[in-house]
Automatic annotation (TrEMBL):
GO terms for molecular function: hydrolase activity, hydrolyzing O-glycosyl compounds. SUPFAM superfamilies: (Trans)glycosidases. Keywords: Carbohydrate metabolism, Glycosidase, Hydrolase, Polysaccharide degradation, Xylan degradation. It comes from Andreprevotia lacus DSM 23236. One of its GO terms (biological process) is xylan catabolic process. PROSITE patterns: PROKAR_LIPOPROTEIN. This is Endo-1,4-beta-xylanase, GH35 family.
Length: 426
């Protein structure tokens, strides 16, 4: 009855409900962590898992782990693995970034240093590296991601070598070799296909890789859902394009992981500025706007069937979230909101949801019973909410407010007149 009442109220605001229930109720929210020294700021329960590979002074790429042939240094990765276990979190490790001595093009400029983006001159060196890592961390690293944002030059003309400049055939071969090496020593570990970026260009890269047979060696498809317009509409369109490409290439049955997504946040550090003049990372958001967008994207991801989301990044000084700002010694609102997203959505199934930028009404079921609704863009009165059986109003800043004490003025102020997502506990 309560659900019917509040559904009627929200329907009157013009929100159309269309989305069927999602089969999987559990929500996986992860974070990218740059530095092993950042772990003291991580609290158990903040998120479910971490993605690790680069970190400038504390990096764990292939070129850092094996600086010379056959000589391995696991000091940084050991710290990440131990800390992830201590915090009861899974760890995904991104393979790649060739050492100069193993690179097919050791003088080629690349994001991570000379020769790093090239395939190895001898593929057996790649197999040895992967086998050594998988053997050392058997049962401790639960997923391996193949490379980071490869260029796929046959599909899209690259503007720089980036993180991988080799041919598609060489990338497929490296994915196959990594799959075989990992499964030989740790069959339970998952292999994640090379994650593409670049919006619609990334979709073209992904489909080209899959069309060359790369998907058969993966347990999950990775993609980086960075947005040019910072809107849910763009996210939904991009997600539909990725899933369509997967379907065309016969891998629609594989889970889709968003292994990197994030925004520039003013309160992440000092003097945060746009990375680009236009497009992706061209806008710096205030922490409250960043938190609201994050929650909308996480909900759209859950409704859209994305199995895992890894936010970028825990300890970034421009895109940071769940590490306290060093200047003020506290989390920004994006970080607080990311923690709330877990509490709002975990163990619940979104039902009858239309996820949009301007307005949304989404029922959350727990054990097949309506437990809450998430709403934004729908101005509701305190009387209406109480009549609909709403017990508490949860905000992205972590506040849980009893409806019995709320009036229309306080509701409008706390939610920016319902512009921000609110959780209506039934």
């Amino acid at each position: 009855m309560r659900t019917a009442i509040i559904g009627t109220i929200l329907a009157l605001t013009g929100c159309v409900v269309t989305t069927p229930p999602r089969a999987e109720a559990d929500l996986f929210l992860g974070q990218h962590i740059f530095y092993a020294s950042s772990w003291p700021s991580v609290q158990t329960g903040y998120f479910d898992g971490v993605r690790v590979w680069s970190g400038t002074s504390q990096s764990a790429t292939w070129r850092d782990i094996e600086p010379s042939s056959g000589n391995f240094n696991f000091s940084v990765l050991d710290q990440h693995v131990a800390q992830a276990q201590a915090h009861n979190m899974t760890l995904m490790y991104t393979l790649g970034q060739a050492p100069a001595w193993a690179s097919a093009r050791p003088e080629e400029s690349a994001n991570m240093g000379l020769g790093a983006a090239a395939e190895p001159g001898d593929m057996s060196l790649w197999t040895r590296y992967v086998t050594t890592v998988a053997t050392r961390y058997r049962g401790q690293i639960s997923a391996y991601e193949i490379m980071n944002e490869p260029r796929i030059p046959e599909a899209i003309k690259p503007y720089s070598p980036g993180f991988f400049s080799g041919s598609t055939d060489s990338l497929v071969r490296m994915t196959q070799l990594a799959h075989d090496a990992i499964k030989a020593v740790d069959p339970a570990a998952k292999v994640v296909c090379p994650p593409m970026d670049g919006g619609d260009l990334g979709v073209k890269r992904l489909e080209y890789f899959l069309s060359h047979g790369g998907g058969q060696y993966c347990d999950a498809i990775g993609f980086h859902f960075y947005l040019k317009t910072q809107t849910v509409a763009e996210f939904n369109t991009l997600l539909a394009s990725v899933k369509a490409a997967m379907a065309r290439q016969g891998v629609a049955n594989l889970p889709l992981w968003d292994t990197e997504i994030g925004v520039l946040v003013q309160q992440s550090g000092t003097n945060v500025v746009p990375r680009n003049a236009s497009g992706i990372l061209s806008t710096v958001l205030d922490e409250r706007d960043a938190a609201a967008l994050m929650l909308k994207i996480v909900l759209a991801s859950q409704v859209g069937g994305i199995a895992r989301t890894y936010w970028f990044a825990h300890d970034s000084s421009s895109m940071g979230s769940t590490q306290p700002n060093k200047t003020i010694g506290a989390l920004n609102l994006l970080g607080v909101g990311y923690i709330q997203a877990k509490a709002w959505l975990n163990d619940k199934q979104p039902q009858n949801c239309t996820i949009g930028d301007q307005s949304t009404d989404c029922t959350l079921l727990k054990n097949n019973v309506a437990a809450a609704r998430i709403s934004w863009g729908n101005t509701l009165s305190a009387v209406q909410l109480r009549q609909a059986g709403v017990r508490e109003l949860w905000l992205l800043n972590g506040q849980h407010l009893p409806m019995a004490s709320m009036d229309d003025g306080s509701l409008a102020t706390l939610s920016r007149n319902f512009t921000d997502p609110v959780y209506l506990a039934l």
